Amino acid sequence: MIKPTRAALTLFAIAMSLPLTAQAGTLSLPAGATVSVEVIDTLTLDQSTTSQADVLLKPTRAASGEYDLPNHCLITADARLNGEHIRLSASTLTCIEATADEREIFSGEFSASAEDLDGNTGVPACVEGSGSDCRRAELLPGDVFQLRLRSELDLEAQENPSAQINERRRQANGEGVANPVPAERPDPDDQ
Fold it and tell me: How far apart are CA 20 and CA 99, in angstroms?
């Protein structure tokens, strides 16, 4: 039997508490991982509008998710009313990982489905009626739920045109169009 040392347990605890970030140009999550999210705008579904495409979600730092995504992420999902629950199927993810001087962009397919904080499929959201007789369901910003990944996520960093422009500006050193030095002109107030 292997007996873990206090130092090993501490190191493991620190590693597990660190937010998931882009490491070496890759954003990765294992299949089955959960992340906590919330809607950006109020989502209302009722008997006349039972589904909505391209619902925008953002990650939260709630303690319920196993993994954290970078702070600047958008997730798109399709939503449909299912009894008292709203079922959400996420399809795309776009994140910007910001460090001191660098910004990495990650964008791609993201296959995940919504669960409540107890791991049940769909998010309980009925505000009028109950059970299969739910007439209106609503999710508000701040209503936290989980997305569980159906498959592994591995997104490579994409080229960042803004970073390339900034690099050219820094290298121009005051010459050229990228970083022009102001021309010598007379002060208009002196004339």
Answer: 13
DSSP secondary structure string for all residues of 27-83: EEE-TT-EEEEEESS-EEEESS--EEEEEEEEE---TTSSB---SEEEEEEEEEEET
Question: Lowest mean pLDDT: which of 28-32, 66-70, 166-170?
Answer: 166-170
Would you state the structure tokens that stand for residue 158, as one six-digit string? 């994409």
pLDDT in tens, 81-130: 999 999 999 999 999 887 766 778 889 998 999 987 777 889 999 999 98
Do 91 and 78 meet the contact criterion of CB atoms below 8 Å apart?
A: yes
Which pTM value belongs to this model? 0.70
Domain boundaries, the chain: 26-173
H-state helical runs in the chain = 6-17, 161-172
